[in-house]
Amino acid sequence: MVTETAQSKRPIRWHIAVFLAPAVLIYTAVMILPLFGTLQLSLYKTIDGVRQFVGLDNFRTLFGDPRWSASFWNALGNNLWFFVIHMLVQNPIGIALAAILSHPRLRFAAFYRTAIFVPTVLSFVVVGFIWKLILSPLWGVAPWMMGLVGLKSWFTPWLGKEEYALTALGLISVWQFVGIPMMLIYAALLSIPDEVIEAAEIDGITGASQFWKIKLPLILPSIGIISILTFVGNFNAFDLIYSAQGAMAGPNYSTDILGTFLYRTFFGFQLQLGDPNMGATIASMMFFIILAGVCVYLFAIQTRLRRYQF
Amino acid sequence: MSKATSSPVRSVAAHAVLITYTVIALFPVFLIVINSFKSRNSIFRSPLSLPGPETFDPIGYTTVLKQGDFFLYFQNSLIVTVVSLFLVLLFGAMAAFALSEYRFKGNTMMGLYLALGIMIPIRLGTVAILQLMVASGLVNTLTALILVYTAQGLPLAVFILAEFMKQVSDDLKNAGRIDGLSEYRIFFRLVLPLVRPAMATVAVFTMIPIWNDLWFPLILAPSEATKTVTLGAQIFIGQYVTNWNAVLAALSLAILPVLVLYVIFSRQLIRGITSGAVK
């Protein structure tokens, strides 16, 4: 083989090491080692100021102690609902917008693209407070606007009601992040070669059926990537809930997701002291959940998606 | 060619959908910005009207500028974001080139190792990161944030850029080798310019979470001198919850610089996406 001769000429190809070294060093030191440090911390407990190895005791507490396990399952359930909202609302809207935008003769496409992506560049703090103000019954903007379409009686302070708060926050997050699936799908749609589209048009496949039969199968890998990015993003979410509802994830923990649960446990809240070891235990559980989701994607979904090379 | 896809009805419908969504996306931001210039009374009495001569009142802004050092916060955010972005793009592209160009022992393993970070949020390692920064004396420095954000951004950058670099023609690189270019020159002179569109995309997706992050500034660099805009706004708003003028002004001040940055970058992003697709 060619590499054989090349290797005998250059026994060590230093440039490979030079190219890899900076990225691998920073990544290992600041990300991988601390991550394992955290997994390790979950196996220890500080008793009377002495750190002791306790095996899986912390996990036993998390699942066995009714107080801990209730909070954990509540947070996990809320997190799942948060994810479902994104999959059902954010991604279909993103795909639909991208499909409309990618039309070759659409005017002002650049303007729409830029405008719809604006909320995505705002920080969680800004988004959380903007919607808190708008949905506030004190200001009255939301009820007034619903009055315009005759739905004023439907208004209720959503963020303050246990049964609606999580859904409201999910939709706020969708509002913020719809630009990401839109941009990724838009790029995927633009990369479909003209010949494929022309061939379809010659065969009389146009408009909506062209989208469903030709374009959608071609962008399925991008949709897969978006789904897994959404999954990881949602199970790691924290900032929006923290900005809008505070660390207590009110009302009555109805918006508590794994991120806020971890934060409260790790740093403590009100009278309870922070517990790094239990925090690390929750972080480890988040790690395993995310790992499981990613494995499902890699082995069950991605291998079945056909990739087309043009 | 069939012109069925450009019928006027379809085009009007497309514009109607897009305009509706644009309004949904922009209206809340617009509402906050116009009300930040109004007096307290008119914020509540007519939230939807533009600030007029009678209702104009910059009291919110004067309060914010008196209380918080937003210029410094902005400068901190800018330094952290730009330096991290530069490091992510440079180191990420270098690693992506090594992985996509050379066959060597452990190539696949290295790719998987670097890809791990796409799915594992760096936040889960916060406790140990804090210990590391305390040990190395980097707490309350921008360097700590830059290191964390570089590590956070690298995996996705390597992954995306490697995909793109696989598409760069081998003939071109081999021609360069025959002409006697070193591997470094091939990377910087031939490959980097060709993947610039992908770099723009990676840049935008890397920049947003860095600029918006609240978690790490809060934990690693909460001092007055190193506060970022996001953290500064969060703390300020928390203290002035009932002062609507100040809250609206602080929000607007946090929004406007980002919007300006975004408008500058979005040209590059859109050009990047489209030219990447058309090639």
Automatic annotation (TrEMBL), chain A:
List where in the cell it is found. Cell membrane
Signal sequence bounds? none
Q: Gene Ontology terms, cellular component aspect?
A: plasma membrane
Annotated GO biological processes are:
transmembrane transport
Q: Which UniProt keywords apply?
A: Cell membrane, Membrane, Transmembrane, Transmembrane helix, Transport
The segment(s) forming the ABC transmembrane type-1 domain are 76-299
Where would you find the membrane-spanning parts of this chain?
Answer: 12-36, 80-101, 110-131, 167-189, 218-241, 279-300
InterPro entries associated with the record: ABC_transporter_permease, MetI-like, MetI-like_sf
Q: Which family does it belong to?
A: Belongs to the binding-protein-dependent transport system permease family.
One Pfam family recorded for the sequence: BPD_transp_1
This protein is called Sugar ABC transporter permease
- Look up and give the membrane topology term: Multi-pass membrane protein
| Coiled-coil regions listed | none
From TrEMBL, chain B:
The alphabetized UniProt keywords are: Cell membrane, Membrane, Transmembrane, Transmembrane helix, Transport
TM ranges: 12-34, 78-99, 111-134, 146-165, 186-211, 246-265
UniProt KW GTP-binding keyword: no
Q: Tell me, which GO biological process terms does this entry list?
A: transmembrane transport
Q: How does it sit in the bilayer?
A: Multi-pass membrane protein
Q: What's one Pfam family here?
A: BPD_transp_1
Domain of life, per the record? Bacteria
**InterPro entries reported for this sequence:** MetI-like (IPR000515), MetI-like_sf (IPR035906)
Domain (ABC transmembrane type-1) spans 74-265
Which CDD domains does UniProt cross-reference here? TM_PBP2 (cd06261)
A single Gene Ontology CC term: plasma membrane
Family label: Belongs to the binding-protein-dependent transport system permease family.
Q: Which PANTHER family match?
A: ABC TRANSPORTER PERMEASE PROTEIN MG189-RELATED, ABC TRANSPORTER PERMEASE PROTEIN MG189-RELATED-RELATED
Provide the protein name: Carbohydrate ABC transporter permease
What species is this protein from? Mesorhizobium denitrificans
